[in-house]
Structures are given as structure tokens and as C-alpha cells.
Amino acid sequence: MAYRNKTYIAFDGDKDIHYYYLMKAWKHSKHVNFNFYDAHDINNARDSSLEETIKRRLRERMTSAKCLLLIVGESTRYLNKFVRWEIELAISSDIPIIVININGKKQMDDNRCPPILKNELAIHIPFKQAIVEYALDNWPDSHTSHRNKSESGAYYYTNSVYQRIGI
Predict the structure, then answer these.
(1) Of the residues 18, 99, 160, 164, which has the maximum number of CB atoms within 10 A of its CB?
(2) Which pLDDT tens digits describe the chain residue by residue (167 residues)?
């Protein structure tokens, strides 16, 4: 089994890619303390490639992932070709899932969350740098603890966590 230290990020590549780029900007900013090892740096999966080639490359990225960040926008729930496949792969590989709501919701957004995740163990957070960083640092271990207790479903942080990190 590969050493898992990367963060795999899934999103609507047509509508929400700028949120992915913003996360990369946080990582490279001197003024923000934010870091993650991006699984997308492992290989190149281009739109012009065959679907099977893209999925093979995405699977290679996922094998080194310690967690999946799913950026959820307006259309994410309808993306079945790749995003649903990425979610299924994370679930079957027992990779912790952090659902990031770009609309600011601090819990599962029933209108936007992909149906496949409704009963799966995942933390749901808003798209804010501090809570994304907190989730990256804490959810993988919490996920393991919840999984060991056979727990499932949507999780979210309490208001005290948001207050503690200044949100």
C-alpha cells in the first residue's frame, strides 16, 4: 500500500475550479498559514484523454491520498462521470471525506450534496481557509475513530470549534 500523505481534491472542473485555485493560492501565500500536499501534482489527467485513461490517472492520485476534499457547488450533485466515481473510490478505499460547501453552510447541504454521500461518514464545512485547514489536520484521525465505532452519516463541527479558530 502506498504512503498516504496527499490531499485529493474533487470539484466541478467547469464551474468551481477557481475554488481549487484559491486553495492553491492560500498554500503559496506568505500571509496565510495553510498547507496541503496536492495529489493533483502526481500526474496529468487531461480532458482530451480517454475516460479510462483519466480514471486510471485519478486512481493513481487517490492511492496516495490521506483524504478527499470535495468542493460542493451548485452542480456538484449532478456530476456522475468523474466526481461520483471519485467519491465512490474514496468510500471503497476508506479515505476520509471533507465536504466543502462553497455557499458557506456549516453542515450538509441537502440541495447540493451528492446523494451518494448522504449516509456516508463525512465532515461538512464551509469554504473558509481556517476551517479547511482545521479539518485537514483533524478529520482523518476523527474519521478513523468514528469508523471504528461503525458510525456513519454527515458530521459537522460545533460552533465552539468555529469560535476557537476565529470564524
Answers:
(1) 99
(2) 445 577 888 999 899 999 988 988 887 777 666 666 554 554 455 555 677 777 777 778 778 788 899 999 999 999 888 899 999 999 999 999 999 999 999 999 999 999 999 999 999 999 999 999 999 999 999 998 888 899 999 999 999 999 999 99
Give the residue from 135, 131, 137, 129 showing the smallest Cα distance to 22. Answer: 129
Domain residues for 53?
Answer: 6-164
Residue owning grid cell 449532478: 78
Q: What is the pTM of this model?
A: 0.86
DSSP 8-state secondary structure symbol assigned to residue 116: G
Q: DSSP alpha helices (H): ranges in 103-158? A: 129-148
Yes or no: say if 98 and 139 are a contact pair by the CB < 8 Å rule. yes
**Cβ contact 83:114 at 8 Å:** yes
How many structural domains comprise the chain? 1
Q: The domain that contains 141 carries what CATH number?
A: 3.40.50.11200
Indicate whether 89 belongs to any domain: yes
